[in-house]
Structure formats: structure tokens, C-alpha cells
UniProtKB/TrEMBL annotation:
Subcellular location: Cytoplasm; Nucleus
UniProt region (Disordered), positions on chain: 1-25
Motif Q motif: chain residues: 66-94
GO cellular component annotations of the record: cytoplasm; nucleus
Family matches, as InterPro entries: DEAD/DEAH_box_helicase_dom, Helicase_ATP-bd, Helicase_C-like, P-loop_NTPase, RNA_helicase_DEAD_Q_motif
Domain DEAD-box RNA helicase Q: 66-94
Domain spans labelled Helicase C-terminal: 280-451
Lineage: Eukaryota, Metazoa, Chordata, Craniata, Vertebrata
Name recorded for this polypeptide: RNA helicase
Keywords carried by this UniProt record: ATP-binding, Cytoplasm, Helicase, Hydrolase, Nucleotide-binding, Nucleus, RNA-binding
A Gene Ontology molecular function term of the record: RNA helicase activity
Length: 453
């Protein structure tokens, strides 16, 4: 058996995808971001990386499945899976599903970026695990927010569409229950506070009868005050034999420490996110004086190119609003993504942009993190990404630019330089990535056409 230390040393902590407070001082709400990604995603995120598996018992055979049939699911459940349009298991599901369904039960910690099929995987495991003849709660799943719990519940309901005897209850605020009367639903999905109450204060659930416990979005969970402790308190009520499953999009030390507490002797599955690359992207900079000048450059650029879609980054909400107003005045159809919008509003803006209703998306950095829009052909840094000390924020630069030129397509990135300081930043970025950023004169049409073809 692998010692804890050993296991940990093999797992290199990954930089947070979107972690908590940003360097620029704006708060990123992880739960909101996660929900937003759910709302705008309709299919799996592509990932060509290999799955890393660390088995609790390295001598036991490692199973992976290429089809759902191999899992020998109940026919009604298999029908539900196919009905969702799933043809074959996703990368992470290939390994995770056989592990979660194995007898005797095994604990699992799984990490992969959002959109790779984690929630669908454990939903399937829960539906397969329960005995519909037993009218008590057997699977307990907790998620960081009301909205995320509802999202998971919808997946379970859809997948379990042809399993009418399996019932689901939502342990979320506002769902009032009579004290002391045990629930008959085999699956309960909820938030830590309410679920804890249901187990202890209200006695709706018999914790000792829970045989599968799932923690979804563990990284978001521990970022929320109190959720971590409530989760641990729920965990303490359960028996040692209860199967524990934990899922997370990122895996920083804090997530790892939490996971170790609630998931003893785990198998570990990890799928690294596909690296963003600058290889297929041509990078330019344009020298400007002030924001009006940048605006003119942008219009020249846009007018002279046949651009499928562009994404423009500003530093502040105010700048984003100003730019949007001016582009609109010029007759462009522009979508604006800004911090004060609700998650639903943002989702609908992104949806419209994706469907090509608007060709230009103006956004602040905070708003855009973690969102995958694939068909962008031009990224413009109207303001360059800097950290709090005013240095180049290389990570953010890569993240912004990495949206273009994906999946073999070619992309362009244009940076607006309006001071000696911003020229320094461009130089820092060039050095960091060891890639040339070419000067572009947007008033010279011919030069532009030849450079950007
Ligand atoms: N095996 C699969 N085949 C096709 N689509 C899938 C499969 N598994 C999940 N999906 C879809 O991919 C998207 C992301 O899945 P989800 O389970 O929410 O990922 P995660 O929990 O890792 O964010 C959802 O739209 C889901 O319906
Ligand atoms: Mg999920």
C-alpha cells in the first residue's frame, strides 16, 4: 500500500484555475463561476491528456472501460445514459466508473477541469448503487450551493428517467420537512448546512445507513466559509464502510488536505488540463497614445480584417462600458460581459456570442476567467494584464490569448501599448514565453494585410 506521503509527492499541485481573490483585487466567486460554466456548457471539454491513476492497492488490476455496456448496468439505467446522448465514457469516466462500481467498494478522489464528466460519472454511480426496494436514503451527495445542487439533481433525474423506483430529495434551503419522519428517497442531494440539519437536528436521514457519500466541487466547497466544517461533521456521522467519493476541478494543497480528511485510503484519478499554447498564435502590439487612440486602432484593425469573432479585454468595468458604447456607436454588434451582471445574464450573453449573434465580446478579466469560447479568431488586450505590482501577468496573458488558435485553427492576438510602462510589459511577456510580439501599424492597411494573413 502506498504511504500517504508517497502518494502526495506524486501529485503535483496544480495552479488554481481561478482561485479566490485575484491579484487585481477583484473577488472571483468560485461557486458563481462554476455555475456559469455549467449553464454555458452543452458538451464535454476536449482533453487529449492521459489520465493518471494512483491505486490504493497497486497490485490490484486496473480496469478501464471503453463502453457503457462493459459496466453491466441495469438496462433501465443504461437506457437513461444513452438517452442523454452519451455514446461512450469520457476520459475520466473510463477509469472512474469501474472504480466507483467495484465490489467491495473503494474510495475515490478525482480531479479534472470542469466539463470533463465528473458529475455525470458519480450520478451514474449513485443510480447504479441504490437498491430501489429499500425505502431509505442510501446515497448522500453535497455540493457548495443551492444552484449547483439543483444542477446535479437535474442530471440524476434525467439519467434516472427510466428508473421510476429510484427517488431523489433536495436537501436545500427552503425545502421544509417534518421533523423525525425518515425520508424514503434513496438519494439526497443538497448543501452541507441543510444536509447536516437533516442528519442531526431533523433526523430525516439515518447517517449509519448511508453507503455512498459524494462531495462534489470540493475546491469550491472549501472556499466557502463554514462548508468545510459542515462537510466534515456530516462525514463523522457516517460509518467506516460508507464509500466516499470526492471531486474537484483544481487540486491545491488546501483541497488535498480536506480530501485526506474525508476520504480515507483513496484511489486517486487525475486528468491534467490541456495546456494552452502560443504556438499557433501570431502576436502583435500597436503603439497608441490614449484610449481614443486605442479605439481608433481597434476600429482600423477590425475594419480591415475578415474576423470571425473577437474578444476584447479591458482592465476595469468602466473601460469596458466605455468601449462597448463607442463600438456600438460605430455600428458594431457588441456583447458586454461585466461584473455586476448575474450569472444568468452572463450565461445568456455568452450564449448569444457563441451563436454568433454578436461578433465582438468586450469583457473584464475577472468575468472571463474559466470560460471556454472556442471559435475566437482575434483576441485584443485593450489593457494589458498586470498584477498588483504593475508587472506582466503572464499566466493571465496566456489564459486570454490561449482562447484563440485552438484545435489547429490559427489565431491573432493584438496588444494595445499606451505608455513606456506597457511597452516594458510587452517585453516581459516576450521574454517569458520566448515568442516574438511584432509591431503593427494599424494605419498601414497593406502592412496589416500582409502581416495578418
Ligand atoms: N460520456 C459522456 N458523453 C457525452 N457527454 C457527456 C459525457 N459525460 C458528461 N457529458 C456532458 O459533458 C458536460 C460536462 O459534464 P459534467 O459531468 O457536468 O462535467 P464536470 O462535472 O466534470 O464539470 C455535460 O453537458 C454532460 O452532459
Ligand atoms: Mg461537476
Amino acid at each position: 500500500r502506498l504511504g500517504r506521503k508517497k502518494v502526495k509527492s506524486n501529485i503535483v499541485p496544480e495552479k488554481s484555475e481561478n482561485g479566490g481573490w485575484r491579484k487585481d483585487g477583484d473577488k472571483v466567486d468560485l461557486a458563481e463561476q462554476s455555475l456559469l460554466n455549467k449553464l454555458i456548457r452543452h458538451s464535454l471539454v476536449r482533453n487529449r491528456n492521459q489520465v493518471e491513476v494512483l491505486q490504493r492497492d497497486p497490485t490490484s488490476p486496473l480496469y478501464s472501460v471503453k463502453t457503457f455496456e462493459e459496466l453491466r448496468l441495469k438496462p433501465d439505467l443504461l437506457k437513461g445514459v444513452y438517452n442523454m446522448g452519451f455514446n461512450r465514457p469520457s476520459r475520466i469516466q473510463e477509469n472512474a466508473l469501474p472504480m466507483m462500481l467495484a465490489q467491495p467498494p473503494q474510495n475515490l478522489i478525482a480531479q479534472s477541469q470542469s466539463g470533463t464528466g465528473k458529475t455525470a460519472a458519480f450520478s451514474l454511480a449513485m443510480l447504479s448503487h441504490v437498491n430501489p426496494a429499500n425505502k431509505w436514503t442510501q446515497c448522500l451527495c453535497i455540493a457548495p450551493t443551492y444552484e449547483l445542487a439543483l444542477q446535479i439533481g437535474q442530471v440524476i433525474e434525467q439519467m434516472g428517467k427510466y428508473c421510476p423506483d429510484v427517488k431523489l430529495a433536495y436537501g436545500i434551503r427552503g425545502n421544509r420537512m417534518e421533523r423525525g419522519i425518515k425520508l424514503q428517497e434513496q438519494i439526497v442531494i443538497g448543501t452541507p448546512g441543510t444536509v447536516l440539519d437533516w442528519c442531526t437536528k431533523y433526523r430525516l436521514i439515518e447517517p449509519k445507513k448511508i453507503t455512498m457519500f459524494v462531495l462534489d466541487e470540493a475546491d469550491v466547497m472549501i472556499a466557502t466559509q463554514g462548508h468545510r466544517d459542515q462537510s466534515i461533521r456530516i462525514h463523522r456521522q457516517l460509518t467506516k464502510d460508507c464509500q466516499m467519493l470526492l471531486f474537484s476541478a483544481t487540486f491545491e494543497d488546501s483541497v488535498w488536505r480536506f480530501a485526506e480528511q474525508v476520504v480515507p485510503d483513496p484511489n486517486i484519478i487525475r486528468l491534467k488540463r490541456e495546456e494552452e499554447t502560443l504556438d499557433t498564435i501570431k502576436q502583435f502590439y500597436v503603439v497608441c497614445k490614449e484610449k481614443e487612440d486605442k479605439f481608433t486602432a481597434l476600429c482600423n484593425l477590425y475594419g480591415s480584417l475578415t474576423i470571425a469573432q473577437a474578444m476584447i479585454f479591458c482592465h476595469t468595468r468602466k473601460m469596458a462600458a466605455w468601449l462597448t458604447a463607442n463600438l456600438t456607436k460605430e455600428g458594431h454588434q457588441v456583447a458586454l460581459l461585466s461584473g455586476e451582471m448575474t450569472v444568468e445574464q452572463r450565461a445568456s450573453v455568452i450564449e448569444r456570442y457563441r451563436n454568433g449573434k454578436e461578433k465582438v465580446l468586450v469583457t473584464t478579466n475577472v468575468c472571463s476567467r474559466g470560460i471556454d469560447v472556442e471559435q475566437v479568431s482575434l483576441v485584443v488586450n485593450f489593457d494589458l494584464p498586470v498584477d498588483m505590482d504593475g508587472n506582466a501577468d503572464n499566466e493571465t496573458y496566456l489564459h486570454r490569448i490561449g482562447r484563440t488558435g485552438r484545435f489547429g485553427r490559427r489565431g491573432f492576438a493584438v496588444n494595445m501599448v499606451d505608455s513606456k510602462h506597457s511597452m516594458d510589459i510587452i517585453n516581459q511577456i516576450e521574454m517569458h514565453f520566448n515568442r516574438r510580439i511584432t509591431k503593427l501599424d494599424t494605419s498601414d492597411l497593406e502592412e496589416m494585410e500582409s502581416l495578418m494573413s
